[in-house]
């Protein structure tokens, strides 16, 4: 048998991991399995076995099982499993070199998110594939918190924009904008500028984290918020009156 035989090359990849990279393979915090070209599970690390044991998986942690078929069976009742099946199949079929999927995996007692990565080991012969599942719950919770912060600021800006476009004279039954808020317009807008700069700074801190996945869109939004705050701050500094006819701050 030659190196071009997929089964032989997969066996050699497993042997390479067992002999030279066993420590790194076993020490990985991700749940990792090595598959051959057909999708059969040939090697798993302790994290994979422990997760299988604690979450109702098979006692043998699917060793010898075709993982593509495992995903296929789950795909009928789970949208994320369907995506996992399609991605894994695309890598095994040679349509993709790698596949990544973030998905929820909640337990009765906690919300959890995982990141699935499917990566070819043998790029030339495509005989071996690494499948890993990494717990990214903390990052996902931070992303949710970040989205909530952005939505809160967007809502506040929308309200402010609505007020800014209101008639210059309040109806008799309504109080002027400053009295409703208890502050002058300049003070309200000044606080908004400070909060926007702070939000943008927090968003850019998320971008620096290696595990954060929404880097480009988050950085773009943070820069736009900064630009808006700088423009508004300069106009406030120059004494622009955003509500013509309303009393000016002294």
Write structural notes for this entry.
The chain is of the alpha+beta class. It has 2 domains: 6-135, Beta-Lactamase, CATH 3.30.450; 139-237, no CATH class. It is 53% helix and 13% strand. The protein contains 9 helices and 5 strands; from the N terminus they run ααββαααβββαααα. The chain has helices at 6-20, 22-27, 46-54, 67-75, 79-92, 137-164, 177-181, 185-208, 215-237, and strands at residues 31-36, 41-44, 98-104, 113-120, 128-135. It has a 5-stranded antiparallel beta sheet with strand order 2-1-5-4-3, sandwiched between helices. A hairpin with an 8-residue loop joins β3 (98-104) and β4. α4 (67-75) runs antiparallel to α5 (79-92) and α8 runs antiparallel to α9. Mean pLDDT is 74; it is low at 162-183 and 246-250.
In short:
The protein has helices spanning 6-20, 22-27, 46-54, 67-75, 79-92, 137-164, 177-181, 185-208, 215-237; strands at 31-36, 41-44, 98-104, 113-120, 128-135. The protein is an alpha+beta fold.
List the helices and strands and how they pair.
Elements: H1 6-20, H2 22-27, E1 31-36, E2 41-44, H3 46-54, H4 67-75, H5 79-92, E3 98-104, E4 113-120, E5 128-135, H6 137-164, H7 177-181, H8 185-208, H9 215-237
Antiparallel strand pairs: 1-2, 1-5, 3-4, 4-5
Helix pairs in contact: 4-5, 6-8, 8-9
CATH architectural group of the largest domain: 2-Layer Sandwich
Helix-residue proportion: 40-55%
The first-level CATH class name of the largest domain: Alpha Beta
CATH topology of the largest domain: Beta-Lactamase
Strand composition percent:
5-15%
Uncertain spans:
162-183, 246-250
Structural category is alpha+beta
Helix-strand pattern? HHEEHHHEEEHHHH
The backbone outline, from C-alpha atoms, is: elongated
Superfamily (CATH H level) name of the largest domain: PAS domain
Strand order of the largest sheet: 2-1-5-4-3
Query: How many DSSP helices?
Result: 9
Radius of gyration computed on alpha carbons:
27 Å
Oligomer category: single chain
First-last Cα distance: 89 Å
Nearest-integer average pLDDT? 74
Described by strand count, sense and barrel closure, the largest sheet is: 5 strands, antiparallel
Tell me the total number of β-strands: 5
- Total number of distinct structural domains: 2
């Amino acid at each position: 048998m030659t190196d071009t035989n997929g089964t032989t090359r997969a066996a050699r990849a497993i042997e390479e991991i067992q002999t030279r990279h066993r420590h790194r393979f076993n020490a990985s915090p991700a749940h990792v399995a090595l598959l051959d070209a057909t999708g059969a599970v040939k090697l798993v690390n302790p994290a994979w076995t422990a997760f299988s044991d604690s979450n109702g998986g098979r006692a043998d942690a699917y060793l010898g099982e075709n993982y593509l078929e495992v995903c296929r069976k789950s795909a009928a009742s789970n949208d994320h499993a369907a995506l996992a099946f399609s991605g894994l199949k695309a890598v095994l079929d040679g349509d993709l070199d790698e596949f990544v999927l973030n998905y929820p995996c909640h337990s009765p007692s906690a919300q959890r998110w995982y990141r699935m990565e499917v990566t070819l080991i043998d790029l030339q012969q495509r005989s071996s594939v690494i499948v890993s599942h990494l717990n990214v719950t903390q990052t996902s919770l931070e992303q949710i918190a970040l989205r909530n912060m952005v939505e809160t600021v967007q809502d506040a800006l929308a309200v402010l924009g609505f007020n800014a476009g209101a008639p210059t004279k309040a109806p008799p039954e309504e109080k002027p904008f400053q009295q409703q808020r208890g502050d002058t317009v300049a003070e309200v807008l000044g606080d908004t500028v400070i909060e926007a700069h702070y939000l943008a700074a927090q968003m850019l801190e998320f971008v620096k984290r290696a595990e954060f996945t929404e880097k480009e869109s988050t950085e773009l939004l943070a820069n736009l918020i900064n630009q808006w705050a700088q423009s508004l701050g300069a106009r406030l500094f120059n004494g622009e009156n955003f509500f013509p006819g309303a009393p000016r701050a002294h």
